Structures are given as C-alpha cells and as structure tokens.
Automatic annotation (TrEMBL):
It catalyses: a neolactoside IV(2)-alpha-Fuc-nLc4Cer(d18:1(4E)) + H2O = a neolactoside nLc4Cer(d18:1(4E)) + L-fucose; a neolactoside IV(2)-alpha-Fuc-nLc4Cer(d18:0) + H2O = a neolactoside nLc4Cer(d18:0) + L-fucose; an alpha-L-fucoside + H2O = L-fucose + an alcohol. Gene3D superfamilies: Glycosidases, Golgi alpha-mannosidase II. InterPro entries: FUC_metazoa-typ (IPR016286), Fucosidase_C (IPR031919), GH (IPR017853), Glyco_hydro_29 (IPR000933), Glyco_hydro_29_CS (IPR018526), Glyco_hydro_29_N (IPR057739), Glyco_hydro_b (IPR013780). It is found in: Lysosome. It comes from Seriola lalandi dorsalis. One of its GO terms (cellular component) is lysosome. It is an enzyme of class 3 (hydrolase). This is Alpha-L-fucosidase. It comes from the Eukaryota. Its main location: other. Alpha-L-fucosidase is responsible for hydrolyzing the alpha-1,6-linked fucose joined to the reducing-end N-acetylglucosamine of the carbohydrate moieties of glycoproteins. SMART domains: Alpha_L_fucos (SM00812). Residues 1-17 form the signal peptide. Residues 362-444 form the Alpha-L-fucosidase C-terminal domain.
Length: 448
C-alpha cells in the first residue's frame, strides 16, 4: 500500500509550488486561516484505557510497562481482577453502547468550540476505527464493533465543525516497535509496516483537518519519516489545503518544527510567542482519559476554564479543552456542564475571542487583571475578576474624542474619562450581570 501511494505522489503534476521533505520547506507552509480564527477546540481521550477508568490513559504502562510498576495500579488490578488478567481483555468491555455521536456533536457545538479532535489511536495502539494494520485491536473487530472515528466525523461535520484526529506515533508494546527500539532505531520495520500505512489510510479515509501527533519523543523524526509524510500531506493528500498539524514529529521537534506549536502539555507561555501555538488542557486535572474515581475538587471549574481560555487567546494561542468519555460512550454530566458553560459565556463574549488577534499590549494589572484582544479597529479589555468598585482603570489605551466604550451584551455606551490627556481611561461600569464564567468584556472603539 505504501509503495503504491509513493508512486502516485511521484506522478502528481509539478505545476504548483511544492513543499520538500525538509523542515526548512515544511515550516514555511502558511497555516490555514480557519485554525487561528477558531480559537477553541474540544479534545477527546477515549479508548480501552477508559474501561479500567483508573489512574489515567497511561494505566497499561504504569501497570506493566514502567520499572518498577506503579503500585497503585498493581494493587487495583490484584483487588479487582483475577490473577493473570491481561490488559487486552479490557477491550471487549469497551462497549460504547450509549455512544450517540449526534449527542456528542450537539454538546461540542453548544460549547462554542469550532473544532473537535478525537483520539484515533493512543499509545496503547488500539484504533477507534477499523484499521487494516491493527487486526483485532480496533473498535470494529472488538469492543464497540463500530467505526467510532467515522461516526463522530459525520456528526461533527454536520454541525459545521472542523474535525481532527489525535494519533500516537509509537505504541508501548508493539513487537515491531520494540524491535526497532532495541536496534537503536536503525531499523524502521514498525514505521514502514504499521505506522505509515495506517496514517496514510487514516488521512485518505477520514480527511481530518487536524493531525494531532504524539508519542514522538523516543526517536528522531528521521526514524518516523516525518518530513516525508508531511510533504505528502501538504502537497498531495486530500486535505492538503486545509490540514493543520502540531509539532510532535520526533525527539527535539516540539516548539521548533511543524504547523502550530504545543511545546508541552498544558503549555502556558509567559509572553506573546512569535509562532502560532495551542494550549491543550483537561477538565480533569489528573487525567486526560476517564477516571471512575475523579472528584469535583480535581476538576477545573468554569471560571478557571474561562480565565485560561482568555489568557491563551490574548497571547495568540488556541485552546484545546479535553474531556474523557466513559467506556459506554457517555460524556460525564459534569464535563457537559463545563462545556455548555463555556458556550453560554461565548454566546455573549465570543466577539472578543473568535478571529481575534493579540493587541499591542496583552495584559495589564491596575484595578483588576485585564487581558486584551483586538479585531479590526476594536480592542477588547477582558476582566477576569469583578472590580470591587463601580469603576475600572485601563492605562494602556490611547483615547480620542471618538473613543466609545460598551460592555458586551449591553449596547449602551458607558461613561468614561481619561486618566491623563489622550492616554488611559477610567470607565464607569454598570451593575455587572451575573455570569458563571465570572469574566466581563469591555469593547473599546476609537482608541490606539
């Protein structure tokens, strides 16, 4: 299959400017505009790891991979499962019997997200679609006996959301990968016979607009054949004009190469980065996958999520918020409540978020912490704390006689006065309406 694809690539017309299989060329590819405009995405970690629902999506590795094993995981298995029980025996219990992709897509749409990224394959190697390269270790051959990737793709796209797929390059216990690793990654049997055929098949079959790559850190990009794959993706794939990729394509690539940068999980820069980036984070602060024993105190509350979203967007990033569904296919009600809360806040304040750009100043802290975004000639001052007084002071904007201030959700202009002539302003606030997100946005027109 891989050979036939490469032959097809070689026969493609050379009339268009093409990217070559090196980082200098690939890194120069413009990022499709839809991605920066979207700002908010939903991440979904779902797989066989959802069945034990304990520790995290790294449960198998913590139980039987790392040395020494995590005793919490060892104890969990010894107390709840018979001796000799193996991790693959969890797969038939991954029933997804309540999985309704339309319900999921409705929740994601209601969250205000513009794109959705589903785990197609995590480090355990189980694929959430009928991969021809993962016999009997996929969601069609066992467990749900259905194409989870394809079913969700249809539902998400029917609601005009962009659809992306997470894919782990490596697999903890795949024999071909372990053999390549033992050989110091001088052989590529896993890459040529498993990873690449599966990736090409996934792209052609589902046409994702995001490939969220992961599991790259043990080997260089030359082992993964990353640049060759990305050159095909950008030049000749069915999604060559819309596809967006991250930066996890080999050891040392993070924050240096690829499409947008993740840098690390839950990355939060201290100042405006020079390159488009994304913060991925999870409502459950302890795990990306479902945990049956999660506690309310371990979850991000809505004000924290909104504040995190605002900071990320003000610093030019996208915000990818993760939820972990149950093995029977339900998004836990507490996660749904968080997502719908984000959407309710964005329904009023999305003007300052979607398709916005960082302003010349990203933040200031006078009366209360303020984050700034901009769009066209408007600047938005975002208050993530309710002021103790009925006024708020903004020192950074340069005012003029034409300056106008409004509160999003309320079209009535607000009274203001300059701090010093033509610089800074003190705004008289109305009674700020209650919002579960505890953040309010002032729209400033006629300023610099």
């Amino acid at each position: 299959m891989l050979f036939s694809i490469l032959v097809a690539v070689a026969l493609v017309s050379q009339t268009a400017a093409r990217f070559t299989a090196d980082w200098t060329s690939l890194d120069a590819r413009p990022l499709p505009s839809w991605y920066d405009e979207a700002k908010l995405g939903i991440f979904i970690h779902w797989g066989v790891f959802s069945v034990p629902g304990f520790d995290s999506e790294w449960f198998w590795w913590h139980w039987q991979g790392q040395k020494p094993p995590d005793q919490k995981c060892v104890s969990y298995m010894s107390k709840n499962y018979p001796p000799g029980f193996s991790y693959p025996e969890f797969a038939p219990q991954f029933h997804a019997q309540f999985f309704n992709p339309g319900d999921w897509a409705d929740i994601f749409k209601a969250s205000g997200a513009k794109y959705v990224v589903l785990t197609a394959k995590h480090h355990e190697g189980f694929t959430n679609w009928g991969s021809p390269n993962s016999w009997n270790w996929n969601s069609v051959d066992t467990g749900p006996h259905r194409d989870l990737v394809g079913d969700l793709a249809e539902a998400v796209r029917n609601r005009s959301l962009h659809y992306g797929l997470y894919n782990s390059l490596y697999e903890w216990f795949h024999p071909l990968y372990l053999a390549d690793k033992k050989n110091g990654f001088k052989t590529q049997d896993f890459v040529m016979h498993k990873l690449l055929p599966e990736l090409y098949n996934m792209v052609v079959r589902y046409r994702p607009e995001v490939i969220w790559s992961d599991g790259d850190w043990e080997a260089p990009d030359t082992y993964w054949n990353s640049t060759q794959f990305l050159a095909w993706l950008y030049n000749d794939s069915p999604v060559k004009d819309t596809i967006v990729t991250n930066d996890r394509w080999g050891a040392g690539c993070a924050c240096k190469h690829g499409g947008y940068y993740n840098c690390e999980d839950k990355y939060t820069p201290g100042q405006l980065p020079k390159h488009k980036w994304e913060k991925c984070t999870s409502v459950d602060t302890f795990s990306w996958g479902y945990r049956r024993n999660m506690k309310m105190s371990e979850l991000m509350d809505l004000p924290t999520i909104i504040k995190d979203l605002v900071r990320t967007v003000a610093l030019g990033g996208n915000y990818l918020l993760n939820v972990g569904p149950t093995p029977d296919g339900m998004i836990p009600a507490v996660f749904e409540e968080r997502l719908r809360g984000v959407g309710a806040w964005l329904a009023i304040n999305g003007e300052a978020i979607y398709a916005s750009k960082p302003w010349r100043v990203q933040t200031e802290n006078t009366t209360v912490p303020i984050w700034y975004t901009s769009k066209g000639t408007s600047v938005y001052a975002i208050l993530t704390t309710k002021p103790s007084k009925p006024t708020v002071q903004l020192l950074e904007p340069k005012t003029s006689a034409a300056t106008k201030v409004t509160l999003l959700g309320n079209p009535k202009p607000l009274p203001w006065s300059p701090v010093v002539p033509s610089y800074g302003l003190v705004v008289l606030l109305p009674e700020l309406p209650y919002t579960p997100g505890q953040a309010w946005i002032l729209k400033l027109d006629g300023i610099q």
